[in-house]
Design brief:
alpha/beta, Rossmann fold, 2 domains, six-stranded mixed β-sheet, globular, binds adenosine-5'-triphosphate, binds magnesium ion
Length: 257
C-alpha cells in the first residue's frame, strides 16, 4: 500500500527564463507536520512555496498535494497562504474583521452579503488566533504581531488543509515569536493543519518544527532538527561560518533586561 503524503515533490526543477532557481528537489511533507524551509536570500524558498501551490510550474519533476496536481488542490481550496509581502496599507480604513472577511467574499460568485455560515467561520478564525476582542479595531492600528495573527485568520477562513506561510515571524520580537510559534502548534492540533513556513531563524524554528528543509537551489538537508548540526548547515547553505544561538523568553537580553 502506498502512503498518501500531504505534499510530495519528486526531482522538481524550476526556472525563471534561463535561470534555474530550484534543482532536483525531493521533499515530502506528512499530514499535520510543521515544516520550516530555511536558506539565504534568493535561495528559492518563496519559489518553492509558489511551486507547491501550483502558481509556478516546474520544468522537470512531479508534485502531488494529497495525491492531486497542485493547481487542482489550489482550486479545491487546500491552501491558506500568507505571502512574504502582505503589507496591508495601514491607513486603509478597514477593521480586522473585514480583513478576514475578504477571503470569504473571494469565495462568493457575485457580490452578496456574508452568510451566517461565513460570519461564523470568520469569528472562529479570529478566535483561533486569539483576536476576537480586537476584531472591530481598525487594522492599521494593530501592532505588527496582531496584524500577522489577523492575516493568519484570513488564511484560516478559507478552511484550508495546508497553511503556507512565507516569513510570518519577520518583525516580531522574540517573545512574540515564541507565542506565534505556539499558536502554530495549537492550530496544527485544533484545526488538523499541515504547516509549511519559511523562516530565517533556524535556531528558533528548530525548537518547534517537526522537520527542517534547508535549501539553496538544492536541498541540503531535510530531516528532524535534532539531526541537523545548525552551524555546519549554515556553513554549507549560506557559505559562511556563523554560530547559531537560540534566544528565547528566558534570555535576559531578549527580554530587554
Ligand atoms: N518573477 C521572477 N522572475 C525572475 N526571477 C525571479 C522571479 N522571482 C524570483 N526570481 C529569482 O529567483 C531566485 C529565487 O527567488 P526567491 O524569491 O524564491 O528566493 P527566496 O529564497 O524566497 O529569497 P528571500 O529570502 O530574499 O525572500 C532569485 O534569484 C530571484 O531573483
Ligand atoms: Mg522569499
Amino acid at each position: 500500500m502506498t502512503i498518501m503524503h500531504a505534499i510530495e515533490l519528486n526531482n522538481v526543477s524550476v526556472r525563471y527564463e534561463f535561470d534555474v532557481v530550484l534543482e532536483d528537489i525531493n521533499l515530502t511533507v506528512e499530514e499535520r507536520e510543521i515544516v520550516s524551509i530555511v536558506g539565504p536570500n534568493g535561495s528559492g524558498k518563496s519559489t518553492l512555496l509558489k511551486t507547491i501551490m501550483g502558481l509556478k510550474e516546474p520544468f522537470a519533476g512531479t508534485i502531488a498535494v494529497f495525491g492531486m496536481e497542485p493547481e487542482k488542490a489550489r482550486r479545491k481550496g487546500s491552501f491558506g497562504y500568507l505571502s512574504q509581502q502582505s503589507n496591508y496599507d495601514s491607513v486603509f480604513p478597514v477593521h480586522a474583521f473585514d480583513v478576514v472577511a475578504m477571503s470569504r467574499y473571494a469565495q462568493c460568485r457575485i457580490v452578496e452579503k456574508l452568510s451566517r455560515k461565513d460570519r461564523s467561520i470568520i469569528e472562529t478564525s479570529l478566535a483561533r488566533v486569539g483576536m476576537s476582542e480586537l476584531a472591530h479595531r481598525s487594522f492599521g492600528s494593530l501592532s505588527g504581531g496582531q496584524k500577522q495573527r489577523v492575516l493568519i485568520a484570513r488564511a484560516l477562513a478559507l478552511e484550508p488543509k495546508i497553511l503556507i506561510l512565507d516569513e510570518p515571524a519577520t518583525g516580531l520580537d522574540v517573545v512574540s515569536q515564541d507565542s506565534f510559534y505556539e499558536l502554530l502548534r495549537q492550530l496544527r492540533d485544533e484545526a488538523n493543519l499541515t504547516i509549511i513556513m519559511v523562516s530565517h531563524d533556524i535556531g528558533a524554528v528548530s525548537e518547534i518544527v517537526d522537520r527542517l528543509a534547508c535549501i539553496n537551489r538544492k536541498i541540503h538537508f531535510h530531516g528532524k532538527p535534532s539531526e541537523c548540526a545548525p552551524d555546519e548547515m549554515i556553513a554549507k547553505v549560506f557559505g559562511r561560518n556563523i554560530h547559531v544561538v537560540r534566544h528565547d523568553t528566558n534570555c535576559p537580553t531578549c527580554r530587554g533586561e
